[in-house]
Specification:
The structure is a homodimer. Chain A is an alpha/beta fold. Chain A has two domains: about 170 residues, Acetylglutamate kinase-like (Carbamate kinase), CATH 3.40.1160.10; about 140 residues, VC0802-like. In chain A, about 35% of the residues lie in helices and about 25% in strands. Chain A has twelve helices and 20 strands. Chain A has an eight-stranded mixed β-sheet with strand order 3-6-2-1-9-13-14-12, with helices on both faces. In chain A, a hairpin with a 6-residue loop joins strand 16 and strand 17. In chain A, helix 1 crosses helix 3 and helix 11 packs across helix 12. Chain A is globular. Chain A starts with a strand and ends in a 20-residue tail after the last helix.
Chain lengths: ~425, ~425
């Protein structure tokens, strides 16, 4: 089994000792374990702050060197705490266990993992404690996987070692129908599919990193999200099970930090979309939703959403490329949010969109953009409508009540 | 040239920016530079504290992982500060530039350095910023060189790269005739020999690490100690120059943290000293002075000094081995200090010891132990006599006044 402990789980020495207890308990239960840790909570931000205080746009290579020191501290401390308990342990940086990545500093992707050192440690009855979030590229330079990358490290290790389960310990006790801080009636889901989780992760549900879920789905690594501080089964993320009676909507995700940009009057010709987005993605800006409607009079409006932090940079780039793109005008809004309904049951049920639009209209909420996927509908609305919208939808889709597959002994359901 | 900046020189972002200015200035002067940095002041102690708060005797392997994260932070920050100034830079951990050491965690010794990455960076007009204090052993495990090990890293790099000078930037502006905090009349030395410096480093003068000086002497790397914060020439440490008119005594060192242990009535037979010290050195305890006088009635008294921190452990070990060693009794004192006179001129001058003993007697100071080397005389006295002893000796050997080789334009002297 692979256990991963996030930053809040290793925030100080007392918590690290608690994590060591959890690890020892799992070892006594007979499991071969590999542990992955994040940096102590706040440490990555502290380091980021140091770097930014020297230079607003520091070298990405050097930021990776800087940030990766955070996990080095927590992994050593956890190894020390384990050895204190008589449990042999050995900590490893990403470079030491050869978590090979590409060269994309700050958001590198894992390409390969050499299992040798880990297998050797396990053979010695040692618990390997591996730094999450970091790897090493072909030049031997330290890379990082981007925020939340420790989850990806854990899943990648679980896949490489063919672990039976990858447990992500965090400060929440599972995946909820929506954020309980916004909707007190929100409930914990006992199970959820990779696809649903993927849509939730991508939509701003901060429990797991998207790439980690992708990875887990791709290599069929059962993932379990559970709390470091509270006993419980958490939420198991697996492939869809035919026995499951899938609810139409499993959960509602939302994202506060959205911005939208529209290019008005782009000539309707092949390559138009590329002309618009090319320079933006070259700058490394991640574009989320893309909406383009049918052209009128040979021109079309092209809208996309992106993270609010990238908004001004993207606007600058597009302004500079306005002539090239052939667009007439550029408008943007960085005070918008996105609300998404997610559920594998959506596939076989029509009318979800209708009920969603009706519910929002009932609250007087104007919908700015709509995008859909197989198991998701997302709308962009003004940020002032976020809370009312999420609450109304949570009630309208019956998420206040337990649903079959999430009941421990519900009719047609499964134990979590 | 190799430049090394200690912890106080990189204590915060403002100081790191100042260091970046110094590095850029040297680069503009046309020097090819390799920079070595320590952890930010206080960081190593903070990390040590974290480790110790979990376990009083943490695994040495894991402590090295923990502590070595400190330099990783400062090296990245300095590289960022250099790049902000338009100076290409690239930071490297000890492992990345293959500073190969033995397996002795916590006080590893450098065995080899691969110059490849450094030469490549220099060829790219980059300033390599290398983590001091750390290396990597043959298993790929992180090692550290012990306190002050960054000096050793700098000298080892200077030797490997055949640098013309290794500059150790620190918070003092050079080597003094004695600690100016104790003797206000103490003066900065413009030059000093490796041998003298070695004796001073070993005797508790905290300016440079002993191993760094040994290394520098062995590979004939001219070392210069100078201040990060105050302009000046510092103190140059080189081989003895025949032109130099060597003073009889160059400097006075002292060590506050001494303890002495005596085994009384050890049988006077071959192997006696080994019987006594074997178990102590096996425990990794460093023994400093060893004094043994002529035997009387087939028995002798065997005394040695050691760091005060190791005192209780050594006493325990010796007590447990008392029968084996054949000694009659064990006595110890951990409230003693050592005062040493150092000077290459001592070789050709008799009477230094006499004047030393006379001076101390004049202050009513009782001498407990005496040991001598070619260019040094050390005495152990009660700790209450430290200050009066050092002051009296500083005056008695004329160290208040500038001496020929340390005057910028003195008769027979050399410019510093």
């Amino acid at each position: 089994m692979v256990q991963k402990f996030g930053g809040t789980s290793v925030a100080d020495c007392a918590r690290i000792e608690h994590v060591a207890d959890l690890v020892c308990k799992a070892r006594r239960a007979g499991d071969d374990l590999v542990v992955v840790v994040s940096a102590m909570a706040g440490e990555t931000d502290r380091l980021l702050g140091l770097g930014k205080s020297i230079c607003q746009r520091p070298s990405l290579r050097e930021m990776d060197v800087l940030l990766s020191s955070g996990e080095q501290v927590s992994m050593a401390l956890l190894a020390i705490a384990l050895e204190k308990r008589g449990q042999a342990a050995r900590s490893f940086t990403g470079a030491q266990v050869c978590i090979r990545t590409d060269r994309d500093h700050g958001k590198a992707r894992i390409e390969a993992i050499e299992e040798g050192k880990l297998r050797a440690a396990l053979a010695d009855h040692c618990v390997p404690v591996v730094a999450g979030f970091q790897g090493v590229n072909a030049d031997g330079d330290i890379t990082t996987l981007g925020r939340g990358g420790s989850d990806t490290t854990a899943v990648a290790l679980a896949a490489a070692l063919k672990a039976d389960e990858c447990r992500i310990y965090t400060d929440v006790d599972g995946v909820y129908t929506t954020d309980p801080r916004m909707v007190p009636e929100a409930r914990r889901l006992a199970r959820i599919t990779f696809d649903e989780m993927l849509e939730l992760s991508g939509q701003g549900s901060k429990v797991l990193q998207v790439r980690a879920v992708e990875f887990a789905g791709k290599y069929n690594v059962p993932l379990r999200v559970l709390s470091t501080f509270k006993q419980g089964q958490g939420t198991l993320i697996t492939y869809e099970d035919d026995v499951m009676e899938a609810p139409v909507v499993s959960a509602i995700a939302f994202n506060r930090d959205e911005a939208e940009i529209t290019l008005i009057g782009v000539p309707d010709q092949p390559g138009a979309a590329f002309q618009v987005l090319g320079p933006v993605s070259e700058a490394g800006i991640v574009v989320d939703m893309i909406v383009q409607n049918v052209a009128r009079d040979g021109r079309l409006d092209f809208t996309f959403t992106l993270h609010r932090n990238d908004y001004s940079q993207a606007m600058e780039i597009l302004q500079a490329n306005l002539k090239n793109s052939g667009a007439q005008r550029l408008v943007g809004n960085d005070r918008v949010v996105k609300i998404s309904l997610v559920g594998v049951g959506m596939r076989s049920h029509s009318g979800v969109a209708t009920r969603m639009f009706q519910t929002l209209a009932g609250q007087g909420i104007n919908i700015r953009l709509v995008a859909t996927s197989e198991i998701k509908i997302s709308v962009v609305v003004d940020e002032k409508h976020l809370e009312a919208g999420v609450r109304a939808l949570h009630a309208a889709f019956g998420l206040h009540q337990p649903q079959p597959r999430n009941q421990a002994a519900g009719k047609g359901g499964r134990a979590g």
